[in-house]
Amino acid sequence: MQSSPVAIYGLGNMGYPLAERIGRQFATQVFDLDAAQLQRAQAAFGASPIAAPSDLAGTQTVVLCLPSPAISQAVLQQIAPHLPRGAVVLETSTVNPEHIHAAQALLAPYGIDLVDASILAGVGQMVAGVASLALGGDLAAIARAQPVLDAIAAKQTYFGALGAGAAAKVINNAVAHAVMIVVAEAGAMATAAGVDCQKLIALLSDAQMGLHRPLTYRYADRIVNGDYAGGMPLDAARKDSVLALQLAQTLGVPLFAIQGSHSVYDMAAAAGYGRDDYAAVAKLWADWGRPTVPPQAG
After folding, report:
1. Helix 234-251 to helix 257-270 angle, to the nearest 10 degrees?
2. DSSP code for 212
3. Beta bridge partners of 6
């Protein structure tokens, strides 16, 4: 084990298995408001409870896995004056880039670097060792903390400057949560229409079907390359959307996400994109000054 321990703040549902993975390779210091969790970490992997911020005087790497940005900021305010210069703080909590930048501003006067190391996984994946990390920040700081990052997760994606990893995590979660509503609506329609739910799951799981193609083909190929010629016309996609709304009305199934999405097809048709491939809905965001891919990508 390295001479400098790794400090972990937060031993909750995600923080405990994260700490356990680190504890298999490094000496650890841990803090949590739950005394039972501290005792559990002591018994399981020999962690030393942090009694006071001054215990971190020789700690080169700190990992935060906390419930809110405000709590992360409060912890950093307490510990920053006690950490050695050159230390690295890994923020694995789910936060926004603005919180990452505020934390770095707090740490910078003490010569401490922050890295966003957002966890792209559920608790079960962390326990199983198949979690992944979305990284953002200074490459030299990441290099100093690389052994600890490797202990947390083998799969890591560097998204860019400080805050980019946190943004990627929040965007990923936003997609998952939005898709959850669409899937719930689809299941309600399927159940009301007498469609076998297991067969619906198999259909939607197919790489050529509804859940995959918008990302792997229409975004990755058409939108990224600005290619809207040919393909399924937006007018035809809008017609299909009308049919879905009619089916839901007939079945008495309330819709929210699918209903809201139809409005975008209405706006794109009104903007004159009806004969383009239906990926042309993305043109609306460019019209509004917020393109869905950088200009050079198209």
Report:
1. 150
2. T
3. 28, 61
pTM here is 0.90
Retrieve residue 149's tokens.
């990052």
CB 197 within 8 A of CB 187: yes
Give the pairing type, strands 88-91 and 113-120.
Answer: parallel
Give residue 298's pLDDT: 55
What pLDDT, in 10s, does the model give residues 141-156?
A: 999 999 999 999 999 9
8 A C-beta contact, residue 154 and residue 208? no
Tokens of 128: 């199983």
As to burial, measured by CB atoms within 10 angstroms (0-12 exposed, 13-18 middle, 19+ buried), residue 290 is exposed
Using alpha carbons, list the distances in angstroms from residue 150 to 108, 129, 185. 25, 11, 39
Whether 80 and 108 have beta carbons less than 8 Å apart is answered as no
Decide if 124 contacts 57 (C-beta within 8 A).
no
Per residue in 83-121, pLDDT (tens digit) is 999 999 999 999 999 999 999 999 999 999 999 999 998
